[in-house]
Specification:
seven-stranded antiparallel β-sheet, 12 helices, single chain, 506 residues, alpha+beta
């Protein structure tokens, strides 16, 4: 009995011991393959890159005279919760900085004062050409470039481009400088290693490394967003500094971070070198940007709009309006056209078109491929020059109640009326705007969700002009019979600015 019970017990112990040994071997094997210290610290080339380019990375120091009236600026007392243990400390600190009496709150006796800020930059030409961010040097009275060895040199501003947040400076170096060259950001792949060098929190010459987390990132910070996203540590003061590939080429300019605390959380953004090169070249040549201009207002092609226009799949940039004095007008481009290719480059969405037009040389003749009524057509356009600043006037709408006018038709959740003098006056509609005016919108309708409102004017329905509510109803009924799920409206505001809206006809 004893032998019968103990033998299986020893066998089980041997099995368990064998499993433990097997698992241990597997763990060692996995560590050897994937967990070596060399792999954990990233590629060996990072130190070589840093050593090669560090002297081309500079600190940017600026000073600015600000009006201290009202206690604004960096001397402003931080807002602390009542009873905070730091309240007394900060109160004494700021009173001492303001001098005897601590200044009067909200008073007018605070004199103007100097404020200083620090950022990063890099040398692209040994003659003394430096690239940084516009926001690093914006509104500065004086700009100095501080080399890696501590040499401080006064800089001259060559030019800035606010839309891409880039600036070019010029210095007269007392000795030969180390310069870096641009690489091709289009060749970057997700997961590629990158190195950031800059001046975070005034700690100059700081090297961090990470990978490319995303490309062509649009964060709605400007009209030409196409950022490289990286998890390389980027903090305050890194702005304007270079992002290198492992060949030591600049493939981006570190510009923005997303952080609730102000410190790095692994989400940083850099302007890609493809964009930077074009901007820098123009700033050096002209001192300003000369961007191409097509002369159209564009909007996204939604699935509903694509269905209405017989476009599969949904793509391109829908032309909502054409400037009478713009290059698109004489080329024959019209509202309702969808641009799908510009100068040989595919246009997937409005951002694509904005970027490629801006990057195209002024005066160049280009082929623009559009879709009109389901068919592709090619138009030749000679680009004009985009004027800056762009003047955009918002439509003025009145909040004052006006007497009700008879409604001639109801369709698509809209009360519609033929335009007359009284309605033009009530909704401030220009005489040049033609169509059917919306006098009321059903709150539960698709039209309300698409933000149609009283005073909007329906100019076209399914790309045909309308002049009465009956015209609109007739077109809607026909589309229903044809089995269409939505109808495309061309809508104008009182100022004549057009947009397309797709509404369900079900």
């Amino acid at each position: 009995m004893i032998a019968a019970t103990t033998a299986p017990s020893r066998s089980r112990r041997r099995v368990r011991l064998g499993v433990r040994i097997g698992l241990a071997a597997l763990a060692v094997s996995a560590f050897s393959a994937f967990g070596t210290p060399a792999h954990a610290r990233g590629p060996d080339g990072i130190a070589d890159v840093a050593e090669k380019v560090i002297d081309a990375v500079v600190n940017i120091s600026t000073s600015q005279t600000v009006d201290a009236k009202g206690g604004g600026g960096s001397n402003t007392m931080p807002q602390l919760p009542p009873g905070s243990p730091f309240e007394e400390f900060f109160d004494d600190f700021f009173k001492n900085r303001r001098g005897p009496g601590g200044g009067s709150k909200g008073g007018d006796n605070n004199p103007p004062r100097k404020t200083n800020s620090l950022g990063s930059g890099f040398i692209i030409d040994a003659s003394g050409v430096v690239v940084t961010n516009n926001h690093v040097i914006a509104d500065a009275d004086e700009i100095h470039v501080i080399l890696n060895d501590g040499t401080k040199i006064k800089a001259e501003l060559v030019g800035v481009d606010k839309k891409t947040d880039l600036a070019v400076l010029k210095i007269k170096p007392p000795k030969p400088l180390v310069a870096v060259k641009f690489g091709d950001s289009d060749k970057l792949r997700l997961g590629d290693w990158v190195v950031a060098i800059g001046n975070p929190f005034s700690l100059g010459g700081t090297v961090t490394a990470g990978i490319v987390s995303a490309k062509n990132r649009d964060i709605s910070s400007g009209p030409y967003d196409s950022y490289i996203q990286t998890d390389a540590s980027i903090n305050r003061g890194n702005s304007g500094g270079p992002l290198f590939n492992l060949d030591g080429d600049v493939i981006g300019v570190n510009t923005l971070i997303i952080s609730p605390s102000g410190g790095s959380i692994g989400i940083g953004f850099a302007v890609p070198s493809k964009t930077v090169v074009g901007v820098v070249d123009q700033l050096r040549q002209f001192g300003e940007l000369r961007r191409g201009w097509l002369g159209v207002r564009i909007q996204s092609v939604t699935d509903e709009i694509a269905e209405s226009l017989n476009i599969k799949p949904a793509r391109g940039a829908l032309v909502a309006g054409v400037d009478d004095k713009g290059p698109a007008k004489p080329a024959g481009i019209e509202p309702g056209d969808v641009v799908v290719k510009f100068d040989g480059k595919d246009v997937k969405d409005p951002k694509d078109l904005s970027r490629v037009v801006a990057d195209t040389a002024v005066g160049k003749e280009v082929d623009v491929v559009i879709i009109r009524k389901g068919q592709e057509e090619t138009k030749k356009v000679t680009l004009g020059r985009l004027q800056d600043p762009e003047k955009v006037q918002a439509a003025v709408k009145t909040d004052e109640p006006a007497p009700e006018k008879p409604v001639t038709q109801k369709a698509l959740g809209l009360d519609l009326a033929a335009l007359n003098k009284d309605l033009r006056t009530r909704y401030r509609i220009k005489d040049s705007v033609k169509g059917v005016v919306v006098t009321n919108v059903d709150a539960n309708s698709d039209a309300a969700e698409k933000r149609l409102s009283a005073g909007d004017v329906i100019v076209e329905v399914a790309q045909e002009a309308v002049s009465s509510g009956a015209d609109i109803q007739k077109r809607v009924d026909q589309l229903k019979r044809d089995g269409k799920k939505s109808v495309l409206l061309l809508v104008s505001n009182g100022e004549g600015e057009l947009r397309f809206v797709a509404l369900s006809v079900q």
